[in-house]
Structure formats: C-alpha cells, structure tokens
Amino acid sequence: MLIHIGQNEFVALNKCELLVNLQTVDEDTKKSILNVLPPLGPVAEYKSGILTTDGKWIGSTLSTESLSQRGICSPFAEGAAYVKEEDKS
C-alpha cells in the first residue's frame, strides 16, 4: 500500500522503518535529519521524517499523526476490485 506523504510524493508502507516527529524530537536528531533532506520553500517546513528500509530519509510537511493514520487506514475492503464491473475481462 502506498501512503501519500505530501509534496506529490508517495512511499510504500512496507518500506517505512521509522517515523520521526520533527516538531518534538531533540534538536540534534532534528538537525541531522534535516541536513539530508532537500530544502523546502520559504513558507513550508518539514514536520515529519521517514526513514526507509534502505536507509534513506524522506521529509513530509504532514504531521506524524496524519501519516500514521494513513498507514493504518484502508479505504477499501480486503480483496476489493479496483476496476469497474463493465471493464473486467
């Protein structure tokens, strides 16, 4: 399942290893994460850091609460068909 993390980016749920709240984490950890993320525009700021299973950091302007909810919510029932009935072959 893919999670929309903002800035038109998505990450696969099974590739997420750690989710860090950049608004509450200690300053040293926050600085080390922000140093590896690309800069944002002057009015935006990263609220969350996502460590992937391959060791890459991804930043998000969404809160960790929003991201974690997106990771546990499933809008469709298990086994739901994603193709209209008339389009099935």
Explained architecture:
This protein is α+β, with helices and mostly antiparallel strands. Helices cover 19% and strands 27% of the residues. The protein has 2 helices and 5 strands. The strands form 2 sheets. A 3-stranded antiparallel sheet has the order 3-4-5, with helices on one face. Strands 1-2 form a two-stranded antiparallel ribbon. A hairpin with a 4-residue loop joins strand 4 (48-52) and strand 5 (57-60). The protein is globular, with a radius of gyration of 16 Å.
Mean pLDDT: 82
The low-confidence runs, each spanning 5 or more residues with pLDDT under 50, are none
Q: Give me the count of strands.
A: 5
The strand order across the widest sheet is 3-4-5
Encode the helix/strand succession as letters: EEEHEEH
The chain-level structural class is alpha+beta
